[in-house]
Request: fold
Amino acid sequence: MQLATRAVVTAVLATAVAVAGYVGLYPLAAACAVLVLLVAVGWPPLANLPFGTGTSAVVALAGLGSVAVVTLEEEQPYLDRLPIVFAAAVVLAFVAELVRRDGRVRLVESVSGTVAGALVAVAATGWIAIARGPEGEALVVTAALALAVGSVVVAIHLPVWMGVLATTLSSAAAGAVAGLVLPDFDPVAGGLLGVAVGILVAALHALFDRMEALERWRPSLAVVVLPVTVTGLLVYVVGRVLVG
Reply:
């Protein structure tokens, strides 16, 4: 999958999260569940893990379980039970290795890669947690729009540091504009949130762009979803700092 195509798909996914967050909690939870399943499909070939079926199952269960507990949690802190889900995912990663019948080659790599994939999937629940807090709808929409803009700009062929600067500034501008348009939301907070999202987008682009695995569709699928899922946790942390 070409860089431009990946950028457009990531932007579309981010826009879908923005729309879902604006509509309501359960549409946003459904969108996060879809993101989790996409990560589960693409993560094993992206990380070149030896037991793709087991890894996908663990990642999917971890992500869907975390989406469920964060959505159904009745009171703050909404991420209170998330460590339990992730701990269960770590145990499942070892259980998955026990069912392997291929001699368990690259055992350490397989376990660590599975746990890392579960963490990526669990990070998507940050979107849900921040949406349930103060000014949650505005935070979700602002961050998702900043992510969409940054994902498009990162595809422009520029020198490395110029590309990082352009991506960060464009995401910051998108966040500030969203802060101006959305009611009762500070454009300065939106701009700062956009800066954080832009830096993340640029970093992930630098990390994955030259991987040969992206010539195949499944690793490419994981790469286009990854910024959206990881941004969920970033939005939760930054949003709590900016808004409380």
Notes: The chain has ten helices and no strands. The CA atoms of residues 164 and 202 lie 6 Å apart. The mean pLDDT is 90. The two ends are 40 Å apart (CA to CA).
